[in-house]
Design goal:
Length: 306
């Protein structure tokens, strides 16, 4: 197999405690043609001094704080690869991840995104559990607001050039909005192997309390999506159900952050748009996740530490 350059961008902001592990997980991949770009987005911890130790092994620079989306767009704009990837500064790629993605793209020319199963790990890199990603279902990604790709996802440069970059207005779920746009271009292919890890810790976006504006993003994402051209008619016909699910996800984020009145209003809006949604088991799971997810992870960390 002829090698094709894979460009991976790590946006780094005050994650010096985890960044070296993320970088090393890329540099030790067995695929021979990887371009690693690390952009320090105005960190105030030891990120810069850590990156200086890697000079000559990767490209890095320090910039004024731009935010994750702008930083990634800048990194991919600098990249020379034909396959792009992103790795959070607190996440990890496992051995063979890049090679598996490239082999999948080579075998399936119609594929625009690859993704894999992954582990949840704690702040000390100990395994919490394995997440088996669902097989790709574009309708479910839109209507059910299910984001299949996690860490270890890659996409073609041509898809980036067609769809553009991440939405700069989004902070909580810019990846989900991006996958919705890329899904209009071609198929996503799941690699049924555990090839990456997502770190859960107090300061991770999916674990920390969500600011009020960020918690509204699911609704804004779906409203923007249905304004796009090229949305399949079968999916456009389910717009009320899709927006209802977006309100449920938003309600979950508000509930997790203690904004109970706003969460209840969003539940009512979800019911008004698609009444059957409030009687689904999924609603109970979202409420339980919002109320107990952080507590459960803290308990797991305590048990592992003991």
């Amino acid at each position: 197999m002829a090698t094709r350059t894979v460009s991976i961008v790590i946006p780094a902001y005050n994650h010096a405690d985890f960044l070296a592990e993320a970088i090393d997980s890329v540099l030790t991949q067995d695929y021979p043609d990887i371009e690693l770009i690390v952009l320090d987005d105005g960190s105030t911890d030891g990120t810069r001094s850590l990156l200086e130790r890697y000079s000559g092994r990767l490209y890095w620079e320090t910039q004024s704080n731009m935010g994750q989306s702008a930083t990634l767009n800048k990194g991919w704009g600098k990249a020379r690869g034909v396959i792009f990837g992103k790795l959070s500064a607190d996440d990890v790629l496992y051995p063979g991840c890049v090679r598996a993605a490239v082999e999948t793209f080579e075998a399936r020319p119609e594929t625009v995104v690859t993704y894999c199963d992954f582990k949840l790990i704690d702040p000390r890199s100990r395994s919490i559990r394995t997440v088996q990603a669902p097989e790709f279902d574009y309708r479910e990604m839109v209507v059910g607001f299910v984001c299949a790709p996690g860490p270890g996802a890659f996409f073609r440069r041509s898809a980036f050039e067609s769809a553009g970059g991440w939405d700069l207005s989004l902070r909580q779920m810019p990846d989900h909005e991006y996958w919705l746009r890329l899904g209009l271009l071609g198929e996503f292919k799941r690699i049924p192997r555990t090839l990456a890890a997502f770190r859960v810790h107090e300061n991770s976006l999916t674990f920390a309390a969500t600011p009020e504006r960020s918690a509204e993003e699911p609704i804004r994402i779906l409203q923007k999506y249905f304004s796009l051209g090229g949305v399949p008619d079968t999916i456009r016909g389910e717009q009320p159900k899709a927006i209802s699910n977006a309100f449920l996800v938003s309600a979950q984020l508000h509930l997790r952050s203690g904004r109970y009145a706003t969460a209840f209003r969003h539940l009512r809006s979800a019911a008004a748009l698609f009444p059957a949604n409030v009687f689904r088991l999924l609603l109970l799971r979202r409420i339980a996740n919002a109320l107990f997810n952080r507590m459960g992870h803290r308990l797991l960390w305590l048990l592992k530490r003991s």
